[in-house]
Specification:
Blueprint lengths: L3 E6 L6 H14 L6 E6 L5 H7 L6 E4 L16 H7 L3 E4 L2 H6 L4 H13 L3 E6 L3 H5 L3 H16 L8 E4 L13 H16 L3 H6 L1 E4 L5 H8 L6 E4 L6 H17 L1
Parallel strand pairs: 1-2, 1-8, 2-3, 3-4, 4-5, 5-6, 6-7
Helix pairs in contact: 1-11, 5-7, 7-8, 10-11
The structure holds phosphoenolpyruvate.
The site of phosphoenolpyruvate (PEP) has 13 residues, from strand 8.
């Protein structure tokens, strides 16, 4: 059985004081669980403080992005090796906000995925369609293009050490959530696409759902067979909401 992952993407939110308060509430409520892995991805400047506060290890830490380059004249960028050196376990790559604002295309995201794995990090690869894509019936084509770029560049075996997050762009931060049926369809599509290259890798691959997941809709999503946890934005900034989502994942795992 795949071990679910619930990861909080804090985006550009927080402060030293607010983070300390949030992390102390989270670590007070969470034990290292065999059933569900939990991670938080704070802004890069706060990673060291978060890691120091979370040294018990029940909650892992990840970066929100990494460079595709190893080192050098890349002002403002952060190398995957640096994230690994300070103690990160995960890094998000290809988030839709970066694909849109930084114009990251799928080939660039694939290079970041490869750089992350070379550094020993587990990439959380985000894929997902815009509302216009869904309305035009292009959801599968968009997701396939984003996924295939990484499968082609990194090879399917690399997905043994990776996580995919399906995040319909129209559901991110909008309060709109994909219905369980819509999410289930795309999750099954992603698993089948990986399975066409390697069935064993596909069966072990964690595919998270992201897009306005809250404590009250998490149970319905996590009950679906191809949904292995969530990538949580807004609700990860509120301790009670995030703990509620983690508990929904633990309950879903317990039901099998
Ligand atoms: C995200 O940005 O990864 C995300 C899922 O955000 P939200 O939960 O706020 O929709």
């Amino acid at each position: 059985m795949r071990k679910a992952l619930v990861a909080g993407n804090w985006k550009m939110n927080g402060s030293l004081d607010a983070n300390r308060e949030l992390l102390s509430a989270l670590s007070g409520a969470m034990q290292a669980s065999d059933a569900v892995a939990v991670a938080v991805c704070p802004p890069a400047v706060y990673l060291r403080d978060a890691l120091a506060q979370l040294e018990s290890g029940a909650i892992a830490v990840g970066g929100q992005d990494c460079s595709d380059e190893k080192s050098g004249a890349f002002t403002g960028e952060i190398a995957a090796d640096m994230l690994k050196e300070v103690g990160c376990e995960y890094v998000i790559v290809g988030h839709s906000e970066r694909r849109a604002r930084q114009h990251e295309d799928s080939a660039w995201v694939a290079r970041k995925f490869i750089a992350a794995q070379a550094a020993g990090l587990v990439p959380i690869l985000c894929v997902g369609e815009q509302l216009a894509d869904r309305e035009a019936g292009r959801t599968d084509a968009v997701v396939a293009e984003q996924l295939d770029a990484v499968l082609d560049a990194a090879g399917v075996a690399a997905f043994d050490r990776a996580v995919v997050a399906y995040e319909p762009v129209w559901a991110i931060g909008t309060g709109l959530t994909a219905s369980p049926e819509q999410a289930a369809e795309v999750h099954a599509f992603i698993r089948a696409r990986v399975s066409a290259r390697d069935q064993g890798v596909a069966e072990g691959l964690r595919i998270l759902y992201g897009g306005s997941v809250k404590a009250d809709n998490a149970a319905g999503l996590f009950a679906l067979p191809d949904i292995d946890g969530g990538l949580i934005g807004g609700a990860s900034l509120d301790a009670a909401s995030f703990i509620g989502i983690v508990n929904a994942a633990v309950a879903a795992q317990a039901r099998g």
